[in-house]
Amino acid sequence: MAAPNTARMVLAVLAALALLLTVLMVRPFATALFVAAVFAAALHPSTERLARLLRGRRSLAAGLVTLALILAVVGPVATLTALLVRQVGEGLRWAREALQSQGLDGLVSRLPQFMHDPLKELLAELPHGTQEIQALLEKEGGRAAAAVGSVVSATGTALVQTILFLVAFFFLLVDGGALVRWIKDAVPLKPGQAAELFEDFRRVTVAVLASTIATAGAQAALALLGYAVAGVPNALFFGFVTFVVALVPIGLATLMVVALAVLKIATGHLVAGIFLAAWAVGVVATIDNVVKPLLMRRGLAIHPVMIFFAFIGGMAAFGPVGLLLGPLVVAFLIAVVRLYRRDYGGAR
Fold it and tell me: For residues 316 and 326, is the Cβ–Cβ distance under 8 A?
């Protein structure tokens, strides 16, 4: 019979090996599982209330919440992404065919008059004329078309990740409570500590999601007002696009409005373009920089500057999912330090 210390060491090695294999197995779809856990934690109270209304039919309640999430978020975002990929691909194909059939001069002739004349003079003064430039543009156009193909391939991968996310989200809503209870029993912490950490996780996820959606809605509404005043065509469509890109808190909503302002100026609407650019910088960007930190502080009691760096640092370290993971990491650190000081550090 093995000595107790030897058996303990072997068991520790086996546990480490099992953990390593589990990490390798989960790693390809870890992002989908994490995002599913975030949304499930945020929507768990709503699912519980709906299940009580449905007389305890938890699976039906989870299915309805999952369907609502698809209709409200996943469907519109996927549709918009597919539309943008298709439009970019068609635009690149058109540009390449136009270069091959009409040349660079033909493309320049289609520009507005105030842009056509300066570019025509600039091309005439170039030492090598337009032939080398046209060849370069055709070459880069081919690379851009190949890049679009890569984007289409990545879209297929994103579709698989989305399906995994929806499956994990549904089952977390159905059996998430049992999973949390199992983790509480399995984690070697004092009674109540694991429950407190889970409650901090749920509170921060709700704060992150609520502040992100509320800020994106406010930015989209203000941007839509600016589009209406500036006379942007299809203002409702661009307002929806602004809402979608505003869900990524790195200033994409402001860039969207600025891009439309530049387009208005390029089409000869100078006053409307200048107004829209000023509206983007002075109003739309201000909402993102002021409202979101204030909303976040309700669920994460730290300075707004730390919240900002949590977003940026999380995205730099983990990619897009870091926009959710960054604040959660900071909240987890604060919760662990608080628990340690309270239970082991003599804090009163």
Answer: no
71 in a domain, yes or no?
yes
The model's pLDDT over 237-276, given as tens digits with 9 standing for 90+, comes to: 888 888 878 876 667 788 888 888 888 887 778 888 889 9
Q: Report whether 173 contacts 65 (CB < 8 A).
A: yes
Indicate whether 348 pLDDT > 50.
no
Phi, psi of 344 (to 5 degrees): -130, -15
Token pair listed for 160 = 């698989």
Instruction: Give the total number of structural domains in the chain.
Output: 2
Q: Which residue, 168, 185, 202, sits at the end of a domain?
A: 185
- Which tokens hold the place of 84? 């943008």
Q: Of 127, 157, 185, which closes a domain? A: 185
> Are residues 212 and 170 located together in one domain of the fold?
no
pLDDT tens profile 176-211: 878 878 877 777 777 777 778 888 777 877 877 788
| 68-114 residue pLDDT tens | 888 877 666 666 666 666 655 555 565 566 555 555 555 556 555 55
- Three-class DSSP labels, the chain: CCCHHHHHHHHHHHHHHHHHHHHHHHHHHHHHHHHHHHHHHHHHHHHHHHHHHCCCCHHHHHHHHHHHHHHHHHHHHHHHHHHHHHHHHHHHHHHHHHHHHHHHHHHHHCCCHHHHHHHHHHHHHCCCCCHHHHHHHHHHHHHHHHHHHHHHHHHHHHHHHHHHHHHHHHHHHHHHHHHHHHHHHHCCCCCCHHHHHHHHHHHHHHHHHHHHHHHHHHHHHHHHHHHHHHCCCCHHHHHHHHHHHHCCCCCHHHHHHHHHHHHHHHCCCHHHHHHHHHHHHHHHHHHHHHHHHHHHCCCCCCCHHHHHHHHHHHHHHHHHHHHHHHHHHHHHHHHHHHHHHHHCCCCC
pTM equals 0.63
In a domain, 13, yes or no: no
